[in-house]
Amino acid sequence: MGMFILGFIGIYYLFDKSAILGFLGLILAIFLPFDLLNYFSKGKNRFSKLFFRLYPKKSEEKNRLLSDASTFFISTILLILIFEREIVLFTLILFALCDASEGVFGKLISSKTLPWNKRKNFAGTLGGFIIAMISGYLAVTYLSIDIPMLLILPASFICALAGTVKKWDNLFMPWLTAIVTWFLIMI
Fold it and tell me: Are residues 92 and 13 in contact, defined by beta-carbon separation less than 8 angstroms?
């Protein structure tokens, strides 16, 4: 999923809002019917089984109406429609790299688990925070994303912290980061 997100960021960085909305809409048009087929057939539809062998669902997704992928596509479309381009780009960069690095650091470095989520640990959260700060700095500096440097620290912290929730971290991470970034820009 991280590679998809980085691809979306590249398309949105190079092209305009309509290009990324069209691209996300096209991909959602592929995922959504298979999610619905899977959900309403209780996982017994042959086409949805074949599709989800190619794009495997996590075990907790099997009984949900929408997969994490469809949820991400819908969420990103809404982010693009609501927030300015700079905030969306910044948010998606932090989300993609923070989320991936939380998983990597959490598995590589054993540390105390989080009290509110036993599946995640402090090392993963700290690693995600550090990578989010570095990627935020690089995005602002080298991609010329117009976000004040002072916002990198709080946005990275919120993104990493939102990644520690038990469910729907792929929604909480970009949305809370975008809302906090927007709010801090406004004050």
Answer: no
Q: Left, alpha or beta for 42 (phi > 0: left; psi -120 to 50: alpha)? A: left
Rounded Cα–Cα distance for residues 71 and 66 (Å):
6
Instruction: Write the DSSP assignment of 127-140 as a string of letters.
Output: HHHHHHHHHHHHHH
DSSP label at residue 149: G
Helix (H) or strand (E) segment spanning residue 177 = helix 169-186
Q: Which pair of structure tokens corresponds to residue 115?
A: 């009290």
**Among 4-13, 71-80, 95-104, whose mean pLDDT is lowest?**
4-13
Contacts (Cβ under 8 Å, ≥6 apart) of 87: 147, 178, 181, 182, 185
Q: Which of helix, strand or coil describes residue 15?
A: coil
Instruction: Tell me how far apart the alpha carbons of residues 150 and 165 are, in angstroms, rounded to a whole number.
Output: 25
pLDDT of amino acid 65: 87
Cα 178 to Cα 83: distance, rounded to the nearest angstrom:
8
> Is the pLDDT at 55 greater than 80, yes or no?
no
> Which one has a higher pLDDT value, 166 or 183?
183
Mean pLDDT (whole number) for 76-83: 96
**169 closest CA partner among 80, 12, 82, 58:** 58
